[in-house]
Amino acid sequence: MQCNQVITRNLVPGILIVIVVLQNILTQTTPLTRWKGGGFGMFSTIDSTGARYLKCYLLTSEGDVPVRTPGRFAQEIRDIRLWPTSQGLMDLAEELTNLEWLLIEKKPPSAAVTVMEVNPLIKFSTEPQDHPYSVSLVRHKFDHEKVLPTKTILRVTGIRIELWRERLDPTSYRVYDEEWIQATALKSPTAS
Amino acid sequence: MDSSDSAQITDGKLVESTESPFDRYRAFLARVHPIDLSLLMTTVLLLLYAGKVWYLDIPIRVLALLGLFIAPLRTNPRYWFIIMCFLVSANGLSWFRIDNHKYLMTYWLIAIAIATNLPEEQTLDFLARTARLLIGLCFAAAVIAKLLSPDFVNGNFMLHTMLFDSRFDTFTWLIGGVDDDVRRSLHALLYDLRSGYRKDVAVTEFWIPHSPRLLWVAHALTWWTLLWETMIAIAFLVRYNNPRIDSARQYLLWIFILATYSVALVSGFAWLLITMGIAQSPKNIARTRTLYFLLAAVVIQVYRLPLGALLHGILGAEP
Fold this sequence. Notes:
The structure holds 2 protein chains of 2 kinds. Chain A is of the alpha+beta class. Chain A has a domain at 1-48. Helices cover 29% and strands 26% of the residues of chain A. Chain A has helices at 3-29, 74-82, 86-97, 110-117, and strands at residues 52-60, 63-67, 101-104, 138-140, 151-153, 156-168, 174-186. A 4-stranded antiparallel sheet of chain A has the order 2-1-6-7, with helices on one face. The longest helix of chain A is centred in the first third of the chain and has 27 residues, at 3-29. The termini of chain A are far apart. By secondary structure, chain B is mostly helical. Helices cover 70% and strands 3% of the residues of chain B. Chain B is built from 14 helices and 3 strands. Chain B has helices spanning 21-31, 34-49, 54-69, 77-93, 100-115, 120-148, 156-164, 169-174, 180-195, 212-237, 243-263, 267-279, 286-302, 307-315; strands at residues 7-10, 13-16, 205-207. In chain B, strands 1-2 form a two-stranded antiparallel ribbon. The chains are: A alpha+beta, B mainly alpha. At the A-B interface, helix 1, helix 2, strand 6 and strand 7 of A face helix 5, helix 6, helix 7, helix 9 and strand 3 of B.
């Protein structure tokens, strides 16, 4: 068999092997999840993209305010979760400091309270204003959004993002999460 | 007139054929050239499961439709080269985001693009060999990943998956003996672990059920998966080609598809394995092809039904 015939015959399996080896090296040496990268490591570990999650806090003079990360960063956040790096987390934190954040004076809708009532794990008063949950009352300000009197712009000094991952202890069967990487970006005084 | 037609003219009269539709269907399958069958299945695969991003989805769907209806396109090397270029570039742009079967699909399309450029007498052998090796290698890689993983062999992954992956709900309830209420509570706890920080719900840890039965099932599932995937890898990677090994390959793959996708269905992966399964067995007879067709057109589609909810209804428990 000629040399180019051998190459042609083995090219495609060869590409698969190279990618698998590369992915295995990356998963051993970097935080890339085994589920991604072409190594066929799906369904092999708990440490999937879904088991890695971000916790985002606004830093204010009155303390840290936990917030949901804006939907427009969904792809960026997904990338961080499947292959996290300190730099990626810091870049995201810096982007988030460029946003303005609103405190919205709004009670949770009664439907939300009803939904919570059926969860036996949650105990609270039936009065929406009394229940201990704060349905996300802080969100980022959309571009061109008018700030109505019912909304206040929060004075944010910075953003802290923490990447956590879920673990399962094999002896005690305890599920817990552990903080993995953290990044804090401070807002420059001129920005506010 | 073709013997497979439903009616034929005898002595100037229209006479119903005695062949059953199934016989005609088998005759059709036996007649189709193995290469065209693989390429036909690939166009359907592309039409349904190529990708979600618009710059891949739209052109590939258009090309797949063309290939489905214009038979000569399916043997045109340029047609497959264009499709391959779209797949390689689009999947290359997001290579660490895409699922593993998208990689396998890309490799398969590269193989087709090469095969259709080869002399006709080599095409069949090339496609068969490449499909066999791709299946074997992807299962071998899956086994290696599971062996290298810190939480697969000890059964933790399967235990966790049974309790928290909603696709396993019915399996966990039926086989693992975990009530719906317990699973719902666990799901709520996991949700609070992940996002409770926004609601001042301080869930930082919780314990999951680990009855002897549940642990036994988790370990059985772990070793079944490892054993079956290893056997598929070996069967498809050995070079020997004889009817026994060929049969073993088919049965191992069929059982894997039947068992695995009944619980955790990934339709695109299943269709791809079926397509390559057909291609790797070029001397397959109508019975083999029929079974592959049944898997693709019936079994995989039936698995998409809300069977779990139906079972819960029949057995009298809430889904």
